[in-house]
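README, section 4: Worked example with a bound small molecule

Sections 1 through 3 covered apo chains. Here we extend the same pipeline to holo records, where the ligand is supplied as SMILES alongside the sequence. The molecule in this example is flavin mononucleotide. Nothing else about the input changes; the structure line simply encodes the ligand pose together with the chain.
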Amino acid sequence: MTPVHGRGPDLITRGGTAGYQELIRPVLFRVGGGDPEVAHERMIRLLARTPAPLTRTLRGYTAPAPHPVTVAGIRFPNRVGIAAGLDKDGIAAPAWAGLGVGHVELGTVTPRPQPGNDKPRLFRLPASAAIINRMGFNNDGVEAMSRRLEEWGVRRGRLTLGTVVGVSIGKNRTTPLDRAGEDYLACLRRLHGLADYVAINVSSPNTPGLRTLQDADTLRGLTADLVGEARTLNPTDPTPVFVKVAPDLGPDALEDLVGAVQDTGVSGLIATNTTLARDGLDQVDLARAGEVGGLSGAPLTARALRVVGRLASLTDLPIIGVGGIMTPADAGAMFDAGASLVQVYTGFIYAGPALIRGINRLALHDEEDR
Ligand SMILES: Cc1cc2nc3c(=O)[nH]c(=O)nc-3n(C[C@H](O)[C@H](O)[C@H](O)COP(=O)(O)O)c2cc1C
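The generated complex, written as structure tokens:
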């Protein structure tokens, strides 16, 4: 274990985030007797009930000035989004615009609903500003999410909810690996016309064998099949397909991966998912380090940045940078490493909406400087 990371309690300079970190977070972390999953579900349900006028008002605070950017042919209202897994079933999809994000990646969804792994399966490591999870794609299934999106009038390219809506797709646990492609195709077929993009999730550590789908030949076939299907479904304007990668791939494996997907017509890469490594944890959290699952948050920052830098050196495909973005400066480093957009999950849990506001400000200033 490497020494104390020291970024736990106060992630952003005081003022910008004091309201959330000092008032809201302590309450949130105590909800459900301190059970993180109960707190998470309540937060999502609360967001889902946010009235639309409040969403619009909040948006003025969190994303004060629009600075749209086109990536992979999609016009994003700004450069920061919510990473997959925070709103797995899209229950709070209409609320995210109010928090200032330009996109939200819903899911991961699978063709059939599934309960995920046994609880407990979500652990906070507050001293390290980290989370370990082994959720295992708990979700209501692609049909339930699609119906929800349809009820809200979501259509691809319309920004109905004020944000770009991407959907992360995966395979059911019970689907054999050699038939995984059918699951991804089923999700794409149902989401086509609704999602602004789909992300192939082959990088979650919590579905047995899933990461083997990142092997070059397998991934080439899977990606080509999905891109091909997107073109069949809409020959003039196919749904963009992204691939989300693990942070535990070394430089050579990343080169193989890029070589495999580069010419498939894939629209971009999302880097990274959670890590199986346990570096960078605060001593206080070492007892939790043995929990099986993927680690996210501050201990992942440097690793994710390295992967994004390596990918950017290998390809001109657009990259969405995610992993350990806990401060606006972390997002700035991701942009400098070559990311066109960034996503947050754990940083949002620890620092709250001020993180999104801070990243929006930073991206806006960077553009003004250019
Ligand atoms: C509780 C939890 C659940 C997650 N579920 C998913 C998921 O379903 N699909 C996915 O692609 N990534 C999932 N992730 C990974 C995040 O999208 C993100 O890639 C990772 O946490 C690194 O970003 P962060 O350090 O900002 O959290 C999950 C992360 C957490 C903490």
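What to look for in the output: Confidence is low (pLDDT under 50) at residues 1-6, 12-16. Residues 83-85, 88, 107-108, 122, 131, 133, 135, 137, 168, 201, 204, 244, 273-274, 296-297, 300, 322-325, 344-347 surround flavin mononucleotide (CB under 6 Å).

Section 5 describes how to batch many such records.
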